[in-house]
Amino acid sequence: MAEVEKPVKKYSLFSLARNALSFHQNWEKAWRSPEPKKHYNAIIIGGGGHGLATAYYLAKEHGLTNIAVIEKGWLGGGNTGRNTTIIRSNYLWDESAAIYDKALQLYEGLSQDLNYNIMLSQRGVLNLAHNLHDVRELKRRVHAIRLNGIDSEYLSPAQIKEMIPIIDISPSIRYPVMGASLQRRGGVARHDAVAWGFARAADARGVDIIQQCEVTGILREGGRVTGVETTRGTIHAPKVGIVTAGHTSVLAAMAGIRLPITSYPLQAMVTEPVKPILNSVVMSNAVHCYVSQSDKGELVLGAGIDGYNSYTQRGSLHIVEEQLAAVCMLFPIFSRLRIMRKWGGIVDTCPDASPIISKTPVEGLYINGGWGTGGFKATPGSGWAFAHTMARDEPHALNAPYALDRFTSGALIAEHGAAAVAH
Amino acid sequence: MSQINRLAHGGRIDRSKPLHFTFNGQAMRGYAGDTLASALIANGVRLVGRSFKYHRPRGIMAAGAEEANALVQLESGRRTLANQQATRIELYEGLSATSINCWPGPNFDLMAVNSWFHRLMPAGFYYKTFMWPAAAWKYYEHFIRRAAGLGVSPKLPDPDQYDQMNVHCDVLVVGGGAAGLAAALAAGRTGARVILADEQAELGGQLLGEQAEINGKPASHWLAAGESELAGLADVTVLKRTTVFGYYDHNFAGMLETRTAKLPNGGATTRQRLWHVRAKRVVIAAGALERPLIFSDNDRPGVMLAGAVRTYLNRYGVRAGSNAVVFTNNDDAYRTAIALKDAGVKGVCVIDTRLAPHGELPTQALQAGIAVIDNSTITGVTGKRRVQSVEVMTLNADASGVIGPARTFPCDLVATSGGWNPVIHLHSHAGGKATFDEARGLFIAADTLQASACIGAANGEFQLNDCLKDGFRAGRDAAAKAGFKKASRRKLPTAAVVDEAPARIIWALPTTKPIGQRGKHFLDLQHDVTVADVQLAAREGYRSVEHTKRYTTLGMATDQGKTGNIPGMAVLAQALGVANPGDVGTTTFRPPYTPVTLGAFAGRNVGPLADPVRMTPMHHWHELAGCKWEDVGQWKRPWYYPKDGESMADAVNRECLAARNAVALLDASTLGKIDIQGPDAAEFLNRIYTNAWSGLAIGRCRYGLMLKEDGMVFDDGVTTRLGENHFLMTTTTGNAAAVLGWLEEWLQTEWPELKVYCNSVTEAWATLTLCGPNARHLLAEFTDDMDLSADAFPFMSMQEGTVGDIPARVFRISFTGESSFEVNVPASYGLALWTQLFNAGEKYGLTPYGTEAMHVLRAEKGYIIVGQETDGTVIPQDLGMQWILSKKKDFLGRRSFARPDSARGDRKQLVGLLTGDPDMVLEEGAQIVAENRNNPPIPMIGHVTSSYYSANLGRSIALALVSSGRDRVGDTVYIPMPGKVISAEVTTPVFIDPQGERLHG
Amino acid sequence: MLLIPCPYCGEREETEFHHGGEAHIERPQDPDALSDAEWANYIFMRTNPKGLFHERWVHAAGCRRWFNMARNTATNAIIGTYKIGEKPPKGAR
Amino acid sequence: MVKPFLRQSPLAHLHLEARRPLGDGLPEAGIHVAERPHRSQIAVRGQATDPAFLQGIEKALGISLPTEACTASGKPGDLQVLWMGPDEWLVVGGPDNAALIISKLTTALVDLQVALVDVSESRTVIELSGKQARVVLDKGCSIDLHPRSFGPGQVVNTLLGRGHVLLHQTDHEPASGSSAYDIYVHRSYAEYLWSWIEDAAREYGLAMRS
Ligand SMILES: Cc1cc2nc3c(=O)[nH]c(=O)nc-3n(C[C@H](O)[C@H](O)[C@H](O)COP(=O)(O)OP(=O)(O)OC[C@H]3O[C@@H](n4cnc5c(N)ncnc54)[C@H](O)[C@@H]3O)c2cc1C
Ligand SMILES: NC(=O)c1ccc[n+]([C@@H]2O[C@H](COP(=O)([O-])OP(=O)(O)OC[C@H]3O[C@@H](n4cnc5c(N)ncnc54)[C@H](O)[C@@H]3O)[C@@H](O)[C@H]2O)c1
Ligand SMILES: Cc1cc2nc3c(=O)[nH]c(=O)nc-3n(C[C@H](O)[C@H](O)[C@H](O)COP(=O)(O)O)c2cc1C
Ligand SMILES: [Zn+2]
Per the structure, how many domains does chain A have? Predict the structure, then answer.
């Protein structure tokens, strides 16, 4: 593969020190802000993590560099910029385990690969069980994951308490903690850094990242895609990838495609920062809460989805109240911490709680979406597989099961257990 | 410490009520009406804490919700609270507060070493380093985390309570300043239902800190009169200490009320109350926040907002310094200069960025003998722990630099004003837009999706007289729109109009060197974000205001950038070469306006009330019998009943044996029961269930399976025909509500032509299941109007009669494979009958059994449990239930069987498993493989769905879903567990009585 | 926080309702006549528009009735509700 | 019915009537509560547009069917009909009357497409009254209970706390501001609701009424 290396100003402690002497006047731009060209070899619609990763791997793995990422707002401003950043690969089915663990493996080397510290913090992710059904389902997942060659353990309440002394495991709480699965390799990463790192690295390989440019139409001729209409003019390309998360249906509709996707509000919030108090990521589907503490000290908390379609990027208060009541049940000492900010995202969910990474009936048009409440963890893997699909016009084995036709054949990948609630 | 900065008189504090408190262990005094901040200033405290990143000494900079610096840890132990703004803590007797984020203390803080490396720590430095070696981040992170985080979380359980309240009103007025009070009065007078909420302890807003006059008298008179008039209006509710923290769709607001200024020592009152308000109209009169001037080293303790300095003087009777410089770009700050001078503060002078300020207020100041240095800026501040002097220079022609000689002014207080920003936060929460008023350099509320209006200072109206006018008009208007049009003839109050000249807006003030090279120009004091950081972000391509925010963390601290955001955005605009900051825009305003506790959001839904506990009529009997509970949805069901010294296994074995050898009694009341009536009832069931219902005889029962349209099993249960047009359906416990919802959905939305009514009767009946060979004998003792013989009362039939003189429906159905009778009696007799059966049953060996034994018994028979043998991916054929799929009619889900995936040859099918070692009980959820090995990855062919020790068989049994399982009967499969591999033989899934003889017996 | 006008009970809080997805998706008269793709279209495919949306709700904690609602999913503004079998209100067609 | 002493309402075991008032020294209880168990309750389904149905009900019960949403007909304490939905009502009578009511209804509605279901056992009634009764409800109920929009004779199916209730206002005295409500709650939720009320009412003083 012929790679055209552009000079990158490498980030390192050394370059930081050198720049400090010149008052940081000489850093290069992390990415350019180019004018859109009239024609590209491929266009990625959506400058979220998945879109940027796709562009990066198209350039890096497939030598495709005359490509553009078109973003209607600011890059990383979609769900990538508003998620609770939980990363894990503890999914039930083989198909899921494969792609999510590919993503986790890429994450494990990503800071170095991108030369951008994405602050991957593998502090362990616990999924709690609160009733016998949960216990059974969690154990099923723990065993499946282990046999897929991925790290996974089951913890008793006492072991949970040992890891997280502030959690209430007493049998007298309304829904007592009966056990948990633990993936030690799971954790969190700095969401913005993932988007920015991919953007910078893609830009360095020649990818044009065009922000403040909304795609308003998808051009087709004789069943083939030929380009896109945008708020900054028409741009032609023989290959177009839709990677627009919450707006997947909106973009697909521009090409006359109906999808099995519904977009819901999903809310998250942060508390005021406090000194380290919680060292792992704790998730509970049964009582709807998930929480971790960021490096800056805030608790990052996620709620369940609102029950109705909406593109407003805000949600209802009662959803947040239910979730915070659950947090107070598990962590009674948190009742006096305060929420400093809460916000919403738009998640595109599929009936089987698994994504779509697929060719479409329109030749040259590809879709990567439907990640719902859990696609951040998949970002590099998703981009990697989607780049393969776009470059070769055929899915990689990793994403072949995620084709659109599974809804016709019935071969769904039901991950509700792994993904029933947001995370 | 004595209150060295307390004025001899003045202020709204109550000098007759002295209060004692401690700060960092030092005893101090203040008065009722003080905030912690005003009391600290009174006591001469300057240094309150250290900053987040550089650990620079910091003091108090504001007097309200915008305070970014003065955060304290309030109290300790059970009542400790982190990161509390000293400006919002009402002083109370015995208060104790300490500085945060410094060690050992704010005066000498070891973490201040960070500031030595500040040059290595520009915005986003962590993205550029700590990457080598890859594994080392863990260790770096450990130290980063320890350094971050401000205050400490409480570590002991919360002794306080929180509650919630729902209210509706015609007009919600946010903010009780001049504009808000006027609006509430105007709306209240029309008879509308009005809520006026203000975050402070007193109404009045900005007026509390001013010497303003209304109707020619001190404004406090008008305030008091207004407040008492509101108190007399029946449908007006005034809520003080109540912050409207969020504004949501369809005019819904969330408010947080602090109910006890001092934390109570327990008792009936809740500490905080969260209000849900549904308003017809919302009037946002939230005022304006003063913005600081951004100059070199503007973070030194003693650099404060000019309005705040005035508030401390007028409202609290304290002077924030003894030697003051006022630094401004507008006229308003001259009020502060005059007030300082009046309070006897020395050396008061005004440094104004404008050329020859000439308005009413500057003129007054000059007349009062205050020196005014025009066209100038502060270029530097000396003094680390408190301001000692400022250096002042003249601005050059375009204000991009300074010229001429530097003058030094010794001072311990710098009161700065960069103008005011309307509080448009709430307007924005619910989708409202903002536009930039270029002339005045501020963002104003524009289009909104809600029925609301911003008024007064919140709408950029800074003249008191205009605020009053605006308030009355807006209040009347809102009431009228809500349907209350009564006119009031009262004369509107007026205030003198002060002619104020325009401000001169220079977002970042120059110093002698390029910005960033002499001192630091702080934008976000709490997060230590400087102008240089924003410029760096712009230079590095983080051009969007949202990128800059995230890259620098500007506005992401607990104050959410109330003072720093707007200057920050303007600085970004400049750095990008964008002329109009409006084109850069604001970042998104999000709730809450000020932080809200988790406890308040949770309200009453904590502890035992976290979620309803649903109880059957026999619940308390089970509890007294010492049962262990299983949570099934909101129900508590008896799981098993251990006797003294019994393990779970002992108890379950005993219960299972009793059920097959004697008689056992189960509380099955939680099963869903739906009464279905109407001429089309049978047709309806035909469509809902997979099998046919038209031919079922009256008094007969039939098992049914329900699918979703994708063909997957959704629920199952037995349905009985009570009459020609009358059925009683039972559902699983967990799905009862969902199934009723499912029936109604189809009836109402798709098949309205069907004449059918569904009613839930789950709660109407207590269901007592007698199971086992002695069941009939025991039941016979209780009834004389039913023939219980197998012929007269065959399996899958129902009789009505009396049991223990109680009217009952008895069903001969069975989930255990044992001859059993499900006795249904009116719920309020359930406990009586249960007790009677229990007493009379002793001689038959009657044993109550719980859900665990029930599960074992049904597994012995290979009966499925929806949600255990199924998981939303299982079709009836997988369960070997082809027999229940009618070929003669359509039913929900049937079409999906024709899809390729349903016909796949390797689908997972229900089978039995018998382990080689009969004592080995497999783990439910364990995965099954075809090869005898334990080194992942290993392809999996299925998993164990149910697994128990069967006392009746004297060995373990399991059910499993296994790929092509029915073809594998007789094969050995393997179950790899950590550290061992278990082998098992695949069998058919029925372990006991395959012919069903016991069932019919 | 939606305030939903139930056509039977009047305005009630969102918490009393359940959302039932897109409205006006009819169950095919003869499922066997459909191709797999058409069947998939009926059970899974949804328009999910940004803007005017016709959706079903049920007043679960109130009168237990299903009804239709026209709402703008970009703003959450409710244009109107209408009973099952009725036509959408003016401005929502 | 048989052996009435064997009957046990969902809150009977709590012996509410024997409890001491709650309220940390408040001079007067703002809230009074009592359980009103075993009311006869019949779910009636039918078409409100069918005159025969309306007449049949009136004939059988002597009171008319409330066709306006969220209203009740009849007299509290006596026979009443509560609106539950556009084709659904709850006929409420004193204890042990259900069979009689059903037989009257059956006779009067013969040949009509209706459904009658005895659900007397499904719910118990908690009676809540006093000056602060409305405020306590406001703590957990999103209905606008202000006298301007809600008053005696009105009835709603709604949520109270985290449970579903049928809330019927039976009385209001404008002078004292005191009002009274019958809260119909499914029996499995009754103890939860009672605990919820006890907790929410504590600050206003709670007394039991016999
Ligand atoms: C509150 C919340 C919490 C979450 N928590 C987690 C978690 O803990 N772990 C996890 O793994 N996942 C989580 N997720 C899910 C995760 O955030 C997403 O799955 C993932 O970020 C999706 O990335 P993306 O790149 O596909 O989409 P996005 O980041 O949303 O990017 C799509 C981009 O497309 C752009 N776009 C849309 N329309 C157009 C157009 N017409 N023209 C041009 N551009 C357009 C958008 O502006 C956007 O920037 C969470 C999501 C939310 C909302
Ligand atoms: N001359 C100037 O430059 C200038 C500038 C600004 C303001 N002012 C003066 O300020 C006053 C403005 O009057 P006003 O009534 O518009 O504002 P105000 O500031 O007097 O009152 C607003 C009130 O709302 C409260 N508040 C803010 N957000 C809240 C929330 N979310 N929830 C609850 N309470 C909240 C504040 O604490 C305050 O009490 C006038 O007296 C005006 O002259 C003058
Ligand atoms: C993991 C994570 C941590 C965050 N931490 C903070 C924080 O410390 N302070 C803050 O103000 N916002 C924080 N945010 C929220 C953002 O400010 C912002 O609300 C979010 O990215 C959504 O964007 P929007 O509110 O601009 O729509 C955080 C967001 C995420 C996803
Ligand atoms: Zn309704």
Answer: 2
